[in-house]
């Protein structure tokens, strides 16, 4: 992810074969909007916190659950079974990729 952050102008995050977020690289890394992107970025080790841990490594965040089979995707948003923000709407209908902020597109009913 560090290579992407330093070399890409725009980043597309995909989950289960669908685009869930697209934004300028700096904006996506500084202000992710899709819950999967938030979880993904939270699972990356950071050298500064690892170096200051007095020999103890901080525990990385994890995204609970399993990635669905592309042959048996759930109804609605494919990330809903793993998402802490999921509602009945998420489980029934997949959200479209929409511009939520300038040049920042997110496919989530409850995007931050």
Give a structural overview.
It contains 5 helices and 4 strands, in the order αββααααββ. With 112 residues, the protein is α+β, with helices and mostly antiparallel strands. The protein has one domain. It has a 4-stranded antiparallel beta sheet with strand order 1-2-4-3. It is globular. The mean pLDDT is 88.
Helix and strand arrangement:
Layout: H1 2-7, E1 10-15, E2 18-24, H2 25-30, H3 35-42, H4 47-51, H5 88-92, E3 98-101, E4 104-106
Antiparallel strand pairs: 1-2, 2-4, 3-4
Helix content range: 25-40%
| Mean pLDDT over the full residue set | 88
Quantity of strands, as a count: 4
Order of helices and strands: HEEHHHHEE
Indicate the radius of gyration in whole angstroms. 15 Å
Largest sheet: 4 strands, antiparallel
End-to-end Cα distance: 21 Å
What is the tally of helical segments?
A: 5
Structural class by sheet pairing and helices: alpha+beta
Shape: globular
Main features:
alpha+beta; four-stranded antiparallel beta sheet; 112 residues; globular; single chain; 5 helices
Write a brief structural summary.
The chain has 5 helices and 4 strands, in the order αββααααββ. It has 112 residues and is α+β, with helices and mostly antiparallel strands.
